[in-house]
Amino acid sequence: AVFWNQLNSKNAEEAEKFYAATLGWTFDSMPGPDGGTYYVAKVGDEMVAGLFTMEGPMFENVPEHWFTYFTVDDVDAAAKDAVANGGKILREPFDVPGAERFVIVEDALGTAQGWATPSEE
Protein backbone atom coordinates (compact mmCIF):
# COMPACT_ATOMS: atom_id res chain seq x y z
CA ALA A 1 0.00 0.00 0.00
CA VAL A 2 1.09 3.58 -0.46
CA PHE A 3 2.45 4.76 2.86
CA TRP A 4 3.43 8.37 2.17
CA ASN A 5 3.98 10.88 -0.64
CA GLN A 6 6.69 13.47 -0.36
CA LEU A 7 7.65 16.41 -2.52
CA ASN A 8 11.42 16.59 -2.88
CA SER A 9 11.83 20.24 -3.82
CA LYS A 10 14.58 22.77 -4.44
CA ASN A 11 12.49 25.29 -2.44
CA ALA A 12 9.99 23.77 -0.01
CA GLU A 13 8.87 27.17 1.24
CA GLU A 14 7.70 28.17 -2.25
CA ALA A 15 6.10 24.77 -2.76
CA GLU A 16 4.28 25.19 0.55
CA LYS A 17 2.81 28.51 -0.66
CA PHE A 18 1.74 26.94 -3.98
CA TYR A 19 -0.06 23.97 -2.41
CA ALA A 20 -1.67 26.13 0.28
CA ALA A 21 -3.07 28.44 -2.42
CA THR A 22 -4.10 25.74 -4.91
CA LEU A 23 -5.10 22.72 -2.81
CA GLY A 24 -5.92 24.46 0.46
CA TRP A 25 -3.36 22.46 2.40
CA THR A 26 -2.15 23.71 5.75
CA PHE A 27 1.30 22.86 7.06
CA ASP A 28 3.09 21.96 10.25
CA SER A 29 6.86 22.24 10.25
CA MET A 30 9.41 20.22 12.18
CA PRO A 31 13.13 19.56 12.12
CA GLY A 32 14.00 17.21 9.27
CA PRO A 33 16.10 14.07 9.78
CA ASP A 34 19.00 15.61 7.86
CA GLY A 35 18.93 19.03 9.52
CA GLY A 36 16.57 21.14 7.38
CA THR A 37 12.88 21.80 7.90
CA TYR A 38 10.29 19.16 7.03
CA TYR A 39 6.77 20.34 6.24
CA VAL A 40 3.77 18.08 6.84
CA ALA A 41 0.84 18.95 4.58
CA LYS A 42 -2.62 18.53 6.07
CA VAL A 43 -6.23 18.60 4.95
CA GLY A 44 -8.09 19.40 8.14
CA ASP A 45 -6.40 17.21 10.75
CA GLU A 46 -5.34 14.52 8.26
CA MET A 47 -1.69 14.37 7.20
CA VAL A 48 -1.56 13.96 3.42
CA ALA A 49 2.04 14.57 2.31
CA GLY A 50 5.44 15.90 3.23
CA LEU A 51 7.71 18.51 1.64
CA PHE A 52 11.38 19.23 2.11
CA THR A 53 14.16 21.14 0.41
CA MET A 54 16.79 18.95 -1.22
CA GLU A 55 20.17 20.29 -0.15
CA GLY A 56 23.68 18.94 -0.28
CA PRO A 57 25.80 16.97 -2.72
CA MET A 58 23.54 13.90 -2.78
CA PHE A 59 20.79 16.02 -4.40
CA GLU A 60 23.00 18.01 -6.78
CA ASN A 61 21.64 16.48 -10.00
CA VAL A 62 18.24 15.37 -8.71
CA PRO A 63 15.26 17.17 -10.26
CA GLU A 64 12.28 18.17 -8.15
CA HIS A 65 9.77 15.33 -7.92
CA TRP A 66 7.04 13.66 -5.94
CA PHE A 67 8.40 10.55 -4.20
CA THR A 68 6.28 7.60 -3.04
CA TYR A 69 6.90 5.36 -0.04
CA PHE A 70 5.28 1.92 0.16
CA THR A 71 4.54 -0.01 3.36
CA VAL A 72 6.53 -3.20 3.99
CA ASP A 73 6.48 -5.50 7.01
CA ASP A 74 10.26 -5.40 7.54
CA VAL A 75 12.44 -2.77 5.84
CA ASP A 76 15.67 -4.69 6.37
CA ALA A 77 14.33 -7.97 4.97
CA ALA A 78 12.68 -6.17 2.05
CA ALA A 79 15.97 -4.40 1.25
CA LYS A 80 17.77 -7.77 1.08
CA ASP A 81 15.01 -9.11 -1.18
CA ALA A 82 15.34 -6.07 -3.44
CA VAL A 83 19.06 -6.70 -3.96
CA ALA A 84 18.53 -10.44 -4.44
CA ASN A 85 16.04 -9.66 -7.20
CA GLY A 86 18.16 -7.19 -9.17
CA GLY A 87 17.41 -3.98 -7.27
CA LYS A 88 19.82 -1.56 -5.63
CA ILE A 89 19.89 0.17 -2.28
CA LEU A 90 20.12 3.92 -2.83
CA ARG A 91 20.03 4.77 0.88
CA GLU A 92 20.62 2.15 3.54
CA PRO A 93 17.81 1.52 6.06
CA PHE A 94 17.44 4.34 8.57
CA ASP A 95 15.14 5.29 11.43
CA VAL A 96 13.18 8.45 12.01
CA PRO A 97 12.67 8.54 15.80
CA GLY A 98 9.03 8.13 16.78
CA ALA A 99 7.99 7.51 13.20
CA GLU A 100 9.21 4.74 10.93
CA ARG A 101 12.11 2.78 9.52
CA PHE A 102 12.88 3.55 5.88
CA VAL A 103 15.01 2.41 2.97
CA ILE A 104 15.35 3.99 -0.47
CA VAL A 105 15.59 1.42 -3.26
CA GLU A 106 15.82 1.24 -7.01
CA ASP A 107 13.89 -1.64 -8.54
CA ALA A 108 15.32 -3.91 -11.25
CA LEU A 109 13.97 -1.49 -13.90
CA GLY A 110 15.69 1.57 -12.38
CA THR A 111 12.67 3.15 -10.67
CA ALA A 112 13.43 4.77 -7.30
CA GLN A 113 11.03 4.53 -4.38
CA GLY A 114 10.96 4.34 -0.61
CA TRP A 115 9.80 1.51 1.59
CA ALA A 116 8.71 2.07 5.18
CA THR A 117 7.85 -0.01 8.22
CA PRO A 118 5.71 1.92 10.71
CA SER A 119 7.15 2.12 14.20
CA GLU A 120 5.41 0.47 17.08
CA GLU A 121 5.73 3.58 19.28
Estimated share of beta-strand residues: over 45%
Spatial strand arrangement across the major sheet: 2-3-4-1-5-8-7-6
Given the C-alpha coordinates, what overall shape results? globular
Structural class comes to: alpha+beta
The count of helical stretches stands at 2
Radius of gyration from the CA trace? Answer: 15 Å
Largest sheet: 8 strands, mixed
Helix and strand string, N-terminal first? EHEEEEHEEE
Uncertain stretches: none
Helix fraction?
A: 10-25%
TL;DR of this structure?
This protein is α+β, with helices and mostly antiparallel strands and 121 residues long.
Describe the model.
The structure is a single chain. By secondary structure, this protein is α+β, with helices and mostly antiparallel strands. Helix content is 18%, strand content 48%. The protein contains 2 helices and 8 strands. The mean pLDDT is 92.
Q: Which key phrases capture this entry?
A:
single chain, 121 residues, alpha+beta, 8-stranded mixed beta sheet, 8 strands, 48% strand
